[in-house]
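Students often ask why we bother encoding 3D structure as a string. The short answer is that it lets us treat folding as translation between two languages. Here is a chain of 96 residues written in the first language.
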Amino acid sequence: MFVLITYDVNTQTASGRKRLNKLAKQCVNYGQRVQNSVFECVIDAAQFRKVKDQLEKIIDPQCDSLRFYYLGKNYKNKVEHIGAKPSYDPEAPIVL
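And here it is in the second language, the structure alphabet:
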């Protein structure tokens, strides 16, 4: 399934900046960063439950926001990209 993960973290404190870094590091393990706090992830249900649980443990729900957008398996006609940062195919092989 294709999931868009977004977050907004209050970074006015040192602990907020630490949470922001932890969130980004976890999201990189599951998907591609497409904007500062936005990740596109092609993951299965088990991976989704795992990343959701990990991210929920990091945020402070009193001052941070975490959102998941479920675009499903037929996402290609639901995503349109215009502008800088060329688009990528999230299902293409990763070449290192």
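Translate back mentally: The chain has a mean pLDDT of 86. Keep this in mind for the problem set.
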